[in-house]
TrEMBL record:
CDD domains hit by this protein: HAD_BPGM-like
Protein name as annotated: HAD family hydrolase
One Pfam family linked to the record: HAD_2
The keyword Ribosomal protein is annotated on this UniProt entry: no
Amino acid sequence: MQAVIFDMDGLLIDSEPFWKQAEYDVFTSVGVNVSPDLAGLTAAMTTKEVTEFWYVKQPWEGVSLKAVENSVVERVKYLIETQGKAMSGVHDLLISLQQADIKIGLATNSPKSIIPSVLQRLDIADYFMTYTSAEEVSQGKPAPDVYQLTLAKLNINADQCIAFEDSLGGIKAALAAGIQPIAIPHTDEFNHTKFDLAALKLRSLTEFNQSMGKALLPQK
């Protein structure tokens, strides 16, 4: 195992509530009726895709889609920088990987401007060799592009890398890039069969040890 790539939202940082709050605040401010059922469909989308989703459902006037998208991002950044907390096991796992000289990367659908806010808030920036946002590639997850670019930045082959993900879209993206994904589902989704696609499923990062990762990869 030469590298590990992490998802970000809901995996490194408990930021999912921030996204929900920011999207609710911003979209309702332009007249959108943000229903829980429809909001649930946008969880794995990029911010651009979420903005387009709501505009198609309930078009607004007077404010551009880009301005609305930027407002969501800025609101999330503020919430992360003032309230963000690491998910269980993040710091200990990063320390152990660094001590083992394993390369560490990050691949996320979130806007690139949010990544430094997360890494600085959690005080984990020094552990990551590189990070990639879906803004840098043609398609976000579940397409493999964001993982493929991260692998290239790390100069690592997919068969010597594992990924940690908390969503089905992320798991599909890792698999499509040839990477073995480990699922860390949210507690209320842990038993959902959709996570059977993952190579391994754990309740939190605290359960992981490096022998688990090595067992998923071809031995060289």
